[in-house]
Amino acid sequence: MTELSTRKTSIVAFVLLYVAYCISYVDRAAISLALAQIGKDFNLQASDLGIVISAFFLGYAAMQVPGGWLSDRFGSKYVVIVTIVMWSLFTAFTSVAWSLTSLIAIRFIFGIAEGGFPPASIRAIAEVFKKDSRPKMSALLLSSNYAGSMMAPLIMAPLIVWLGWRHAFNTIGIAGIVFAVIYFVFVPYLGRTDAAATAAKAESRTPMRELMRNPLLWQLMLVWFGLSCVNKGLDSWMPLYLLQQRGLDLKTVGVVAPIPFVMATFATAIGGWVMTTYFAEREKYLLIGSSALTGIFLYAMYKAETIPVLIVYQSLVYFFKSFVLASVIALPTKLLRDDQIGSGVGMVNLGGQSAGFVAPAIMGFIVTGTGSFDTAFGFLVAMTALSVVVAATINTAQPRLAPKPA
To answer: Which of 31, 292, 261 is nearest to 148 (CA)?
Structure first.
């Protein structure tokens, strides 16, 4: 497959991928903002709502590897389009849910539909940019994660207030399908890049079992699992916490909720630079410090007596946990062989996706069982302690794995 020959087309493709990522985060965040109304309509407990949230991440995690394989096999364009159409349809289908079971099923399939997009989008970057530009452009594309998270409350909160949650889901679902048509029109089909080279290298790829014997990857996976519990837990439950425990209305939540994501965007952008500039061969200290500070500010956030102070502490939580994200994803690219980096990063990110399934459900059961968020936030603080302990065992001053014999 050939790369795009013009800079203009590459930029168009990148911009549309960036917008698609933002749409995906708006669509997935919509459920958290609508939890209060959904719970009231269906008479659901917090534990039920936690399962609804976790169902998405279970499907999302399950589709990561198949999505990458499909993109390699058929090219990124059609995988991107199909994923956008499918997740948009199931976003809209959320509006016709009639029971807890139907809601869980719809959100699980929504997760499967959206789960193929991240690997397909990175594959698309490889198709439209030259090799030396791909790392930079891939990182820039991923900054859309927090941009979308910032946009979600600003878009969804007013829609839910004005239209109700069912019509709000219909609206953003239709918008996604319209965007898929735009992507189809403006991004050409590029087929499969380097198909011959890929086939030639197939036999020489690192066996997965070799990576699974590498303790560093398991350590990074656990570190990111702990901090991602904080990430997914707060993303899922903070809107409802602010509504029910802090007495805010949905419009106000829509205004204050994006603020921490500004800090997260900035921290993720500079995290790799901070790690390589100030913590070379000492990366574990950045992981330890950032994880510990995340836990400290998380505790301070929950104990804050006013909303402005709470938002300041939550912003600091997001700032330092984003340093951990930048580090755990960057370290495999530094310490592993080139033929191991993709699979290694995938293993590490599996920890984050697993946390997305585990944390919201556990917090829901805790809130239902105790009647408050006290123990639920204590669980998140404990997860930061797990990350600190595991990070302390990491040795990043180690050579790359030896190359395989010819």
So the answer is: 261
Question: Which H/E stretch holds residue 401?
Answer: none
DSSP structure class, residue 282: -
C-alpha 297/C-alpha 290 separation (Å) is 11
Picking from 196, 214, 238, the residue at the C-terminal end of a domain is 196
Q: Which of 193-197, 209-213, 386-390 has the highest mean pLDDT?
A: 386-390
CA–CA separation, 329 vs 331, rounded Å?
6
Q: Are 174 and 214 part of one and the same domain?
A: no
The answer to whether position 36 is within a domain reads yes
3-class SS at 58?
helix
Same domain, 64 and 95: yes
Provide the greatest CA pair distance for the chain. Answer: 66
Cα angle 9, 13, 16 (rounded to 5 degrees) comes to 140
Q: How far is it, in rounded angstroms, from Cα 44 to Cα 99?
A: 10
Q: Over the stretch 271-299, which tens digit does the pLDDT of each residue have?
A: 767 777 788 778 889 999 999 999 999 99
Boundaries of domain holding 342: 206-399
Angle between helices 144-163 and 165-186 (to 10 degrees): 140
pLDDT single digits (tens) 336-385: 664 555 566 667 777 887 898 889 889 988 988 988 888 999 999 999 99
Residue 36 maps to which CATH number? 1.20.1250.20
Give the side-chain half-sphere CA count within 13 A for 391.
27
Q: How far apart are the C-alpha atoms of 50 and 142, rounded to whole Å? A: 26
Residue-level pLDDT at 202: 46
**Cβ–Cβ under 8 Å, residues 16 and 186:** yes
Whether residue 402 has pLDDT greater than 60: no
Query: CA neighbours within 13 Å on the CB side: how many for 219?
Result: 19
Q: State pLDDT tens for residues 228-239.
A: 999 889 988 888
Is residue 328 within 8 Å of residue 220, measured between CB atoms? Answer: yes
And the tokens for 184? 């189809």
Rounded Cα–Cα distance for residues 66 and 116 (Å): 7
Q: What token pair was written down for 97?
A: 């849910």
* Last residue in a domain, options 177, 196, 215: 196
Q: What's the mean pLDDT in 16-27?
A: 91
Quote the pTM value: 0.73
pLDDT at 151: 86
